[in-house]
Amino acid sequence: MTNREQNIADALNRECDCSVTDLPALRKHIEGAMEPGQSIVESHPHLFSATPVFLQAIHVEQMRRVIESIEAISHLPTYQQAALAQAPSIARIDPRAAGVFMGFDFHITPDGPKLIEINTNAGGAFLNIAAQDSHRACCEAAGGCSGLRPGLAESEAEVISMFRREWNLARGDSDLRSIAIVDEKPRGQYLYPELQLAKRLFESHGIRTHIVDPSELEITAGTLRCGGMQVDLVYNRLTDFYFDAAANQILRLAFERDLAVITPHPRAHALFANKQNLVLLSDAAELSRFGVERSAIERLIQAIPPTREVKCGDEGWWQNRKGWFFKPRHGFGSRGAYRGDKLTRRVFAEVAKGEYLAQELTPASERHRTIGGNQAVFKVDVRCYVYAGKIQLMAARLYQGQTTNFRTAGGGFAPIYIIDDAELR
Predict the structure, then answer these.
(1) Mean pLDDT, to the nearest integer, of 78-107?
(2) Cβ contact 372:409 at 8 Å
(3) What is the per-residue pLDDT across 351-384, written as a single tens digit (0 to 9) for each?
(4) Are 237 and 121 spatial neighbours (Cβ–Cβ below 8 Å)?
(5) How far, in Å, CA of 62 to CA of 114, rounded?
(6) How many angstroms separate the CA atoms of 415 and 128, rounded?
(7) Cβ distance 181 to 260 under 8 Å?
(8) Which distant-in-sequence residues (6+ apart) come within 8 Å of 267 by Cβ?
(9) Is the pLDDT of residue 6 over 70?
(10) How many Cα atoms are found within 13 Å in the side-chain-facing hemisphere of 287?
């Protein structure tokens, strides 16, 4: 990384006050997939930010290498044995499909990108794809930047290719004819507009699609069905990652009996998104035991903040809490997560019960922007949407407070611009 590259990225994130996203055009595009009378402005006023986030090209390359290293590790039998031992038995079923829309979330620090979390069924991909044709040119100062914007048509074609590949991995060369997008009470989900975008895209490629609650699924004559339609593939948006809930038993049976291709699936969560995996992936001794190459070990130890289990009754964490971020080991999103320096004794009593992990505190980078005539400072998360170890799409999330929330004026999903040193010379 050159000093010039670093200074330009930092300076633009502090000083660039441009708006690069045509929000009215984007909202109109999304509402075209929504039901008549629905307004994305009324229901989701802070879903998108017009503010770009600038990244150094070397940081993008570092994130790519970290993701590829974790993908390679996920195929090691020694790692699989350790990861699957921490998960329910259903995760031992190998459905052959890889798992769509992995989310690798990073904070960008002076020491490089830090991997904070890995998610299955990471939300926002279809929304950020929809935004790609709504980005305008930025200021002259950003003339040396390249945007991660391959274009709407190209990105949509890649998504369709990904879902068809999932189908072909599990079913061979037959045609994918039908998809059920499954979430708990989908109309009440905050990202329901995204599910509607996905439905429109699938149907534009001749794939019959329903958005349904798990209760609308049934098994008939050895097939998974919805509203009389045989379901070839389930695009799984549930946060019941192992189909434990009584309401999801039809999906559990369909997965166990291989009645439909379900993606992402329990095995993908167990190998990647189980938070306990970060304990393994941030431990050099464990990685060496798995047979990971030294270069990959060094890469992961640099990029993944040390993550440790909080054992039941361990009061020592109270004294050291300020340098750590505490996450429930079986939680998702930001629910139940706490910065150590914000912990009260009452909340720490819950943490000390042993159902938490502690991750070394890694503050998010910042993006400065004028909002309503006042200077506002936003925290920045960078999300990489990944399939089979390859980055398909990147987007930033701007927020204020402890966690991403889509409730801050000027915040939300934001486009990423890359400072490419080769273009600056």
Answers:
(1) 97
(2) yes
(3) 988 889 999 999 999 999 988 788 899 999 999 9
(4) yes
(5) 10
(6) 8
(7) no
(8) 84, 91, 92, 93, 94, 95, 99
(9) no
(10) 22
Place of tokens 């950020």: 128
Q: Where are the domains of the chain?
A: 3-290+363-424, 306-360
pLDDT at 278 over 90: yes
Least reliable range by pLDDT among 150-154, 252-256, 401-405: 401-405
Number of H helices, E strands in the chain: 16, 20
Angstrom distance (rounded) from CA 307 to CA 314: 16
Phi, psi of 161 (to 5 degrees): -60, -40
* Angle (nearest 5°) at CA 51 between 50 and 56: 140
Closest to 397 (Cα-Cα) out of 381, 385, 410, 408: 381
Q: Against a cut of 0.90, is the pTM above it?
A: yes
Interstrand relation of 53-56 and 416-419 (parallel, antiparallel or unpaired): parallel
Placement of tokens 């633009």 in the chain: 12
Q: Percentage of the chain with pLDDT > 90?
A: 72
Radius of gyration of the chain (CA): 22
Query: How does residue 143 score in pLDDT terms, banded at 50, 70 and 90?
Result: low
Q: Which residue, 193, 188, 255, is CA-closest to 224?
A: 255
User: At CA 212, angle to CA 210 and CA 216, rounded to 5?
Assistant: 110
- The whole-number pLDDT of residue 1 equals 47
Distance CA 334, CA 310 (A): 18
Q: In the sheet where 178-182 sits, what is the strand order?
A: 208-212, 178-182, 233-236, 261-263
For 237-248, b/e burial (b = at least 16 CB within 10 A) is bbbbbbbeeeeb
Query: Is pLDDT of 97 > 60?
Result: yes
Task: Check whether 402 has a pLDDT greater than 90.
Answer: no
Is the Cβ–Cβ distance between 261 and 251 less than 8 Å? no
Mean pLDDT across the chain, nearest whole number? 91
Residues contacting 49, CB < 8 A, separation 6+: 21, 378, 398, 410, 411, 412, 413, 414
Please choose, from the candidates 386, 30, 28, the residue with its C-alpha nearest in 3D space to the C-alpha of residue 200.
Answer: 30
